[in-house]
Amino acid sequence: QVQFVESGGGLVQPGGSLRLSCAASVSITRIPAMVWYRQAPGKQREFIASVATGGTDHYLDSVKGRFTISRDNAKNTVYLQMNSLRPEDTAVYYCNAYPNRDWGQGTQVTVSS
Fold first, then answer.
1. Nearest C-alpha neighbor of 59 from the set 81, 74, 40, 26
2. Measuring CA to CA, how many Å separate 1 from each of 25, 69, 78, 97, 100?
3. Cis peptide before 32 (omega within 30 of 0)
4. What string of DSSP letters covers 52-103?
């Protein structure tokens, strides 16, 4: 059973940057796609970005050009580099495999001045 531990969140001012990490308890080499999601207060969890084993990535339109997803199979870790953060990016961020496995606790990102 795979577990995901997200980290790297925090409070940042608008326009700032954060790098989130997601450590998996098992090798992610054979996981076809790793995905970042987020859930803002009162809203449903939404897809943000995914990266396949071959490196192909996809993004939510509102984060294209600002966020970059990457995976390090040797470290069983997935990253989300977030630049030019906006208040509307405030949410709890989660990572998971696709198809989804058990959810981790997520990491809180708050963008506020």
1. 81
2. 8, 24, 18, 12, 12
3. no
4. ETT--EEE-GGGTTTEEEEEEGGGTEEEEEE-S--GGG-EEEEEEEES----
* C-alpha–C-alpha distance, residues 83 and 93, integer Å: 15
Tokens 């509307």 -> residue:
88
Measure Cα distances from 42 to 22, 49, 92, 102 in Å: 24, 21, 12, 21
pLDDT (tens digit per residue) in 60-113: 999 999 999 999 999 999 999 999 999 999 999 999 999 999 999 999 999 999
